Amino acid sequence: MKRFSLLTILLLLSAFICLGAGTALGSNGNIDSSSLQVNLTNQNPDSARPGETVELTVSVQNVGNNDLKDITVTVNPEYPFTKLSGESLEKGISYLNARQDDDEGGVLKFKLMTDSNASAGTYDIDIVTTSKSGSGSSSTTYTTTQTVHLDVRGKEYAQIVTIDKANIDIAKEENLDFIITNTGTSPLKNMVVSWKDPEGVILPVYSDNTKYIKYLDAGESVNVTYTVMADVNADPGLYTLDINLSLEDYDSNEQTIRTTAGVFVGGETDFDVAFSESDAGEISLSVANVGNNIAYSVKVSVPKQDNYKVSGSSSTIVGNLEKGDYTIASFDVASAQAVETEGSTGRLGTAKASAEGGNLTAASVEGNPLKVQIEYTDAKGERITVDKEVELEMTSSSAAAGGPGASRSNSGLSSYLPYIVLIVLAGGVFVYRKKIQEKILARKEKKSGDKKPGNKNMDVRLQETEK
Q1: CATH architecture type of domain 271-402
Q2: CATH assignment, 158-265
Q3: Mean pLDDT of residues grouped by 10 in the chain (467 residues)?
């Protein structure tokens, strides 16, 4: 009896222990009436690209002891992922058997859109599943959330945003800067920049046309500088530069970006102005185009200034000047200092001279360069003004004929000078002969009144004198 009672007690204890163990396993999940496993089995492409779609393959497996039904899988995207138009974020599975193996279960696919400005990195997405087990009033609903990780590959793209020069002068070394910006969201590496003018007018000097950039982070810019020169015989105009930019992408594949830019060749020029000659108050200036560009519609002017005054027109249009050509421009220029000095005397004749302008003298032009202004139209159609100063050189003869009034009186007098000299010489000869005749007559009268014997020799000398 005691043995039976002891055996019965041991059996009862064993039953309670097994029941407690089963309850404990069910509580920690090792043995569960319902358990879903959700895994991201594939991402296509392996790294999402900004502005492109990404497809997610999700596996759903029932590893619990109870069959499940009405299973719903929902993807909750967050930035940089959004719902793709026409694609559902929620999909369902009607039934899953209990205790499924790895090759069993359901497979669902979802498509998402990646933001075009997304930066490279890893982002989290939550996948929520709901399921039911049992039936009727004993039915139980289960909800689980699984977080998966998606890789995003940045956009590799660069562009040449700016070329710092729109104009290159002919036959002159100039710097040409290309500003290259990484407008993508991923760093760029091993970039190669090159350019070419198909017509061969613009060429790099001191280096070739290729530059290298080892690394350029997203959003950053870099300057690539070339020293260039345009052909001295080039025609002014707009020329095309073909620009190539190659880079390595995320997978170390080479990409090439091709673009074009326009650069104007030609522009301003320069002039040399020199004093040529002065005659009767008129000065002549030599104007030469010493630059490398043609000058259109050239106008030479003598502007208002303190030391000089222009009578008549102060400007003259000389037309177009090719590079290396020159022309002569003449102006009636007087000394403003002489005008003031003569005008202060108050004499009538001097006042008239002051109104016409004072004579240019060596003293009045010394240290007082004449200001000259040259206006022209360049090859781009822009009107350009160049200011120059010219040293005047006056000789004694040109200074004497410096003023307009003096030039007219001196020129008139000089035209009659030969006649005046002849008249003076003729008068002098006439007076001289008259005096000689008077002396001869006087001697004859004296001879006739005082003639005596023995004066034969004197008579002979008088006859010789008359001869």
Answers
A1: Sandwich (2.60)
A2: 2.60.40.10
A3: 53 49 34 67 88 90 84 92 92 85 82 87 91 77 88 75 78 90 82 93 93 88 92 90 84 81 89 87 91 93 92 93 93 74 40 50 87 93 94 66 44 59 75 74 65 49 46
Tokens representing residue 21 in the block: 């163990």
Helix axes 348-356, 404-449, angle to 10 degrees: 140
Question: Distance (Å, rounded) from C-alpha 270 to C-alpha 298?
Answer: 12
Please compute Rg for the chain using Cα positions. Answer: 56
pTM summary value: 0.52
Q: Return d(Cα 109, Cα 219) in angstroms, integer.
A: 35
CATH number for the domain running over 28-152: 2.60.40.10
Task: Check if the beta carbon of residue 123 is closer than 8 Å to that of residue 77.
Answer: no
Helix (H, G, I), strand (E, B) or coil at 340: helix
Phi-psi region of 98 (alpha: psi -120 to 50; beta: other; left: phi over 0): beta
DSSP 414: H
Asked whether the bond before 45 is cis by omega within 30 degrees of 0, the reply is yes
Only one residue has tokens 């008129």, namely 282
Burial 288-304, CB ≥16 within 10 A → b, else e: bbebbbbbeebbbbbee
For residue 166, the 8-state DSSP code is: S
Question: What strand order describes the sheet that includes 106-114?
Answer: 36-44, 53-62, 106-114, 81-83
Select from 33, 81, 45, 60 the least CA-distant residue to 128. Answer: 60
- 175 CB contacts (<8 Å, ≥6 apart)? 164, 165, 225, 226, 227, 228
Structure tokens at 224: 């690539």
| Omega prior to 80 cis, within 30 of 0 | yes
